[in-house]
Amino acid sequence: MALLECVQLSRNFGGLVAVDKVDLAVEAGEIVGLIGPNGSGKSTLVNLITGVVPVTGGRIRFEGHDITALPSWRIARLGIARTFQLLRLFKSLSVLENVTLPLQPRMASGQAASAFGRGRAAEEDRAAVAKGRELLAFFGLVEFAERPPTALSIGQQRLVELVRAIIVGPKLFVLDEPAAGLSPPNVERLIDLVRRMRDEQGITILLVEHVMKVVRELCDRIVVLDYGVKIADGDPQAVTNDPRVVEAYLGGGREQPHARG
Amino acid sequence: MRRITPALLALAALALVPLASPSGYLLHMLIVVFLYVILAAGLDLVMGYCGQYSFAQGAFYGIGAYTAAILHRDLGLDFWQTLPLGVLSAGAFGLLLGIPSLRLSGHFLSITTIAFQTIIYLLLTQWTSFTGGQYGLPVPKVGTLSLFGHELFRIEKVREFYFLALAVMAVALLVAWRLATSRIGREWRAIHDDELVARAIGISVTRDKLVAFVASAALAGAAGVLVAYYLEGVSPTDFSIWTSATVVAMVIVGGRGTIFGPAAGAIVFTLMPEVLRATADYKLIIFGVLMIVMVIFMPMGAAGLLRRERS
Fold this sequence. Notes:
The complex is a heterodimer. Chain A is of the alpha/beta class. Chain A folds into two domains: 155 residues, Rossmann fold; 83 residues, P-loop containing nucleotide triphosphate hydrolases (Rossmann fold). Helix content of chain A is 38%, strand content 23%. Chain A is built from ten helices and ten strands. Chain B is mostly helical. Chain B is built from 14 helices and four strands. In chain B, a hairpin with a 2-residue loop joins strand 2 and strand 3. In chain B, helix 2 packs across helix 11. The model of chain B has no long low-confidence stretch (mean pLDDT 88). Chains A and B meet through helix 2 and helix 4 of A and helix 8 and helix 9 of B.
């Protein structure tokens, strides 16, 4: 059984079919790349999987459970974390508060206990801070823990977003264009980090990416969307040589596909 | 802890004021300030922290006050019994108003809260058999607090009521402060910043918003019970949309999402008309200009300016 399974998944916006009957399966432990030209429906597909946008047709199953109609916060608590195409950190929280926030809804003690109690709630809050600091330290960001996220560079903010996603130990991590706006050395670091997330922590990864280098180096398998339709699904070498994929990217021809945008 | 020390010092100083045998007028003004501090700190939870604009704080204030008056009239309950009940009933109405807020945002939510405020005001003025209409209802003095037949203390004079109001304000501020700086406060700020991402990381936005509405209304309910016993009566005019709008102005001018900023706003807006008594006719114009100037030049209020200077 696949960890994530989309069956005939569709989404219409008025007359526009953004995602058209897409079948997608992600096995546990895989790194799957999702590519396609601008406007091909990649982000919509991610939004469907994470419950941000409601589904028009088809089913989504996660660990065998139907999550098609669940709200995004329930899906998040089941173990699907994500990042967003544009940086979306909470700017009125500190970096540390940003990364520990996802732990809060998963705590055993309630919100009232945190506001008025001591004991267990305080203990859990302290544990969350310790864990947040530990992960920030791992990413070389601990010195910024008390600062607002806007004080960080774009690359550092991307890292904070990664920490915020992995702190809960998600089973599936969906990254929406994580390399956008990163400098080449940071892209190298990102590739290394994503690989280590899978290898060391066993997180399954679905990666939407424009930067071909990232996709080719990281992914076990690549899925290609064009105009909302899945046009290829297979190992990176085969997919990047697939004539239909080349055509989707370049409008015909025999060259290797390059990233747009 | 650092940030709470000045607040403790201010409360201690306020507790010493009656010892200097001040005029009854000063004590009266300070009691009114305390009431508005509770209202503004309460509204700050829903408005400053959670980002939901509510123009119904005056209605919850009224619900607390009328709960006290009606429970006294019909069941003969006293201040100590109606204080928690006023808090509860205002909180319950907060839940009622919070439910539509789950589907609405921005201007639409604000308009809904104005509608709620208006409905409550109409009920207070028109449902004469229950609320006493325009004449309102009488409320007795707080009187004595007895425990097992033993008289603990007596609250009859303004000076005695001053301590009661100060104590209730201190507790209200503590509750607001604890909520704002605990987990739920962080979740409110996250919802304020980016509701979609808050949901995506697993926060139950709906529930958190409801908690904000209930907590905010419950604090206003406490202020309502206090004012009913302070004025020894309730009448609808104290709980109109003007009260709500004034509290909103206090929160915005003082600085959203800081608790102490709105408390400072409450002090300014309560004392300013007294200081500028000669300009009473222009009060609303002055308030309006002040609001516009603040929103344009200091959108985060006076407290926001302080914070920026420090960092």
